[in-house]
Amino acid sequence: MSTGTHYTMTNGGSISSSTHLLDLLDEPIPGVGTYDDFHTIDWVREKCKDRERHRRINSKKKESAWEMTKSLYDAWSGWLVVTLTGLASGALAGLIDIAADWMTDLKEGVCLSALWYNHEQCCWGSNETTFEERDKCPQWKTWAELIIGQAEGPGSYIMNYIMYIFWALSFAFLAVSLVKVFAPYACGSGIPEIKTILSGFIIRGYLGKWTLMIKTITLVLAVASGLSLGKEGPLVHVACCCGNIFSYLFPKYSTNEAKKREVLSAASAAGVSVAFGAPIGGVLFSLEEVSYYFPLKTLWRSFFAALVAAFVLRSINPFGNSRLVLFYVEYHTPWYLFELFPFILLGVFGGLWGAFFIRANIAWCRRRKSTKFGKYPVLEVIIVAAITAVIAFPNPYTRLNTSELIKELFTDCGPLESSSLCDYRNDMNASKMVDDIPDRPAGGGVYSAIWQLCLALIFKIIMTVFTFGIKVPSGLFIPSMAIGAIAGRIVGIAVEQLAYYHHDWFIFKEWCEVGADCITPGLYAMVGAAACLGGVTRMTVSLVVIVFELTGGLEYIVPLMAAVMTSKWVGDAFGREGIYEAHIRLNGYPFLDAKEEFTHTTLAADVMRPRRSDPPLAVLTQDNMTVDDIENMINETSYNGFPVIMSKESQRLVGFALRRDLTIAIESARKKQEGIVGSSRVCFAQHTPSLPAESPRPLKLRSILDMSPFTVTDHTPMEIVVDIFRKLGLRQCLVTHNGIVLGIITKKNILEHLEQLKQHVEPLAPPWHYNKKRYPPSYGPDGKPRPRFNNVQLSSVDEEREETEEEVRLLNSTIL
């Protein structure tokens, strides 16, 4: 019934600090205090362990120089582990960026002069490249030129089409095969699981070395295959793997799950830092989106890890532009007040897109889980990759790498741009030249590009729904930003042309004179990208800072804030869950979202187990049970912990013992202590009771007993209980009445209760007398204990009838 843990609060609500979590032990039992897979950690116990360790080190540091050195090493180990994490994250991100660019261009051709060059690098040193055809050079050969010797014509197009599909399917097949065979945890974004792990859940192997290795390799393959996914989300997973692996080098973190999660919070900041080139945005992302426990010390270390990771990535310079990201842009035109209206419209679009995507993707993932289609992940990836490649190749905007597409959409049209998006007609009659490139009428290339972008928008929306969640590493940041950037660029061009042809309208008259450069379509693409990403993830502050760091312009914060907040409000109107919370709920992870509000009027007694139809609450007595009794109870139940009471008669709570600790302690005692047999008395009390001389040696297990478990009364509102679980990270708490144990509430019980309340609308709050005397006093009017059932006190039928009649009279008098 319990998921076992130790929490320290009395019925009055004060935290007990007088009782040590682990009682004094001459020799600690190995394995006690550790956790099984798919269990939740005990935050209170872990913090107590860390304080004990810290006090022990401080008390010894003046004894010798060696102890002082150990103390300094312990104090600096936090900074060392985040430094190593930042270095590894930056290096791996640079490697992934370079490899993904090269393999993406491999689908189209190869550089004969240097096979390891991508298309852009291959043509850097060429003297035969023209301005109009800067991507064409003799050193770069398409597959049609290599195979059939034709650079142009239908035959060349078909051959390049076939080779594009071949390479896309090859990369996708290799990626899903590696994930399936070597590291099943390497699939997906990883952020939902990271959030769950940071909340205290244990998923063994999810942040291991095999997952790191396979995720790094398959992330390159998945991006290169052309699927509608990004590498930014999985880079957070990669960075957290690095943080987890390096934390094992330092005992301070390897032996304490709560301290390890501080490193993982810093690692997630480093992951976003290298994904977007946004160190400050990475810290805010860790604080706002993924971290469950974020003390001030973790904030500093997250900042430092993000700094180190960004420095390493900048040193590698994977894009050759001396920037941390591919689509870094700078705008030189200010925005004007009338543009807030289209910016807010883009925010509405982002919110609608986010709500649609979350519902559609969750519906598809649920269908995948419940049908035979989910049993063939390799086939699903091949089908999605084939459809994506076949449809993407004819459209130049979908054929592009998604990061390259965002770069082109963000870029402002200058004199050096040859893209069809910048195919404007030069107006020689402009009366005033305010900027180098004033607003001009759109040419045929712009209108053609808009049609292609509209088709690309529909394609990206549909394919992203089916791609996110397949069994390859797949991020959502870049596809969402691409959808928003496409919509924003289309809106930006429309507003630009409207301002050019109708500059005498009152909304344009003040700012857009003839020949002035007042509209920047690239800025609309940037705002649209932020709005769509915000609509999907429901990020706000961190998202604005990330996009601001991408552009390097302070003056565009207000448009970004307006669009992001609008998208969040519109998205929240359809459902308050972001995509990561929705996937957490879909996968059934035990995650209590701090953003959700509990507005119902239920009590602890309504949620606790056991119910009246359930088996009795399994409890241990303080000194009346044998080793065999406890082992039988462990074998016959699946509970993860047991309340310890004084005796069957008194039912007063003594403490709480975890199933795992009991098992380990009994096994250790059988091996190391002589005379411990099945009939040995187990004692949780401080003093062993007197036993007959012929009795076998008793087994003292007080050291594994949590003598200050968290308790609430049966009349505690669930609103308070849920808040306590969220803020203290509880796994369970005991429900008592006058100090007598009635039941237990676990994290799982709360999640089930929340789900039931979502399915059924709760009626209005009942009147004050509804819960009166739901649990009677411990003793009846005659002074004798009341009868019990399942260790929960129940009134006799006559007493219940008397109380009901009394409440009816009370109700009538109240109404009158």
TrEMBL record:
Entry's transmembrane regions: 76-96, 164-186, 206-227, 234-251, 263-287, 336-358, 378-397, 449-470, 482-503, 523-548
UniProt xrefs under Pfam families: CBS, Voltage_CLC
Listed GO CC annotations: early endosome membrane; Golgi apparatus; late endosome membrane; lysosomal membrane; plasma membrane; synaptic vesicle
Protein name: Chloride channel protein
Superkingdom of source: Eukaryota
GO molecular-function terms, A-Z: ATP binding; chloride:proton antiporter activity; voltage-gated chloride channel activity
The protein's role, per its UniProt record: Strongly outwardly rectifying, electrogenic H(+)/Cl(-)exchanger which mediates the exchange of chloride ions against protons. The CLC channel family contains both chloride channels and proton-coupled anion transporters that exchange chloride or another anion for protons. The presence of conserved gating glutamate residues is typical for family members that function as antiporters.
Span of domain CBS: 608-672, 705-764
Keywords: Antiport, ATP-binding, CBS domain, Cell membrane, Chloride, Endosome, Glycoprotein, Ion transport, Lysosome, Membrane, Nucleotide-binding, Repeat, Transmembrane, Transmembrane helix, Transport
Organism: Myodes glareolus (Bank vole)
Membrane topology: Multi-pass membrane protein
Entry-linked SMART domains: CBS (SM00116)
Family of the protein in this entry: Belongs to the chloride channel (TC 2.A.49) family. ClC-3/CLCN3 subfamily.
Gene3D superfamilies assigned: 3.90.1280.20, Clc chloride channel
Region (Disordered): 768-805
Keyword Cell membrane: yes
Subcellular location: Cell membrane; Early endosome membrane; Late endosome membrane; Lysosome membrane
Signal peptide: none
